[in-house]
Amino acid sequence: MTGNHREKTISRRRAIAVTGGTVAAGGLVAAGFQSAFADTSDTTTDADATASASSTSSECMTLMTSVTEGPYYLDGALVRKDITEGKAGVPLTLRLTVVDATDGCTPVSGAAVEIWHCDAWGYYSGYTTANPGGSAPAESEEGDSANDLTYLRGYQVANANGVVKFETIFPGWYTPRTCHIHVKVHTGGEKADGTYEGGKVNYTGQLFFADDIAEEIFTLDPYAKHTGSYTVLADDMVYDGGGATSGLLTLKAVHKKDPSKGYKGSLTLGVDPDAESTGAGSGGGGTPPSDAPTGTPPSDSPSPSASASS
Known about the structure:
Elements: H1 46-51, H2 57-60, E1 91-100, E2 106-107, E3 112-116, E4 153-157, E5 163-169, E6 180-192, E7 195-208, H3 211-217, E8 250-253, E9 263-271
Parallel strand pairs: 1-9
Antiparallel strand pairs: 1-2, 1-5, 3-4, 3-6, 6-7, 8-9
């Protein structure tokens, strides 16, 4: 862990610019929790309600708005269903359905969906010394067996129904962002050497979590060891309040009375298979610290089953 562990409250810097269907975004270093929601009781309204609603055909007919990929992207993620690599956290089963929003929401079979997100303390693989903000143990203190260049990153290839499924953990947070997962949809490429190569990126986006669920999760271990000022949805620089069409996941607890047992998250991604996304937003969310390690995940890393499942 580098830098000072000062708690600080991040002021609102929402940058929303709808120009050619692209929202200005950001993905910076992290935000904190410890009583994080104490002063935000008036901000968890429509977003929370939307999280319990299922995606409808009218929503998937609306093209999902692309946002910047943020500063923590790495090429060469592995094709695999389970991306945890032993990282501790509340289990999250993520089910995403890719449909062609320009053709009556027909499934996009063979689309490669790529996701990446931070661990329970706000650290990304490949950038494990980047300070997540607030106060948190160093990433190395977790004591897991995860590969520092590959954990919590991966691809799955959509089945005939356009569905992919990932096994991961509920993400933590980092200043000044709310809890989120990055996602890209690729088409036209192929699986090779344990990863996905070629083709083009049709969509770059982010997936979000209702504030009340995040509040509950972040009181649990290991999340509770990261303290500070957490950014709620209404104050996030990327989430624009559009519910499912802006990436807000539908979440269902595995056991309603015990959130530690995990959640199932789902969303339909309405994309244009003919479009190409550069991953560059019009706002920009900063860059990782200059001393943060970078690199491409090694091609000889062990690759679990590459099959998608519904």
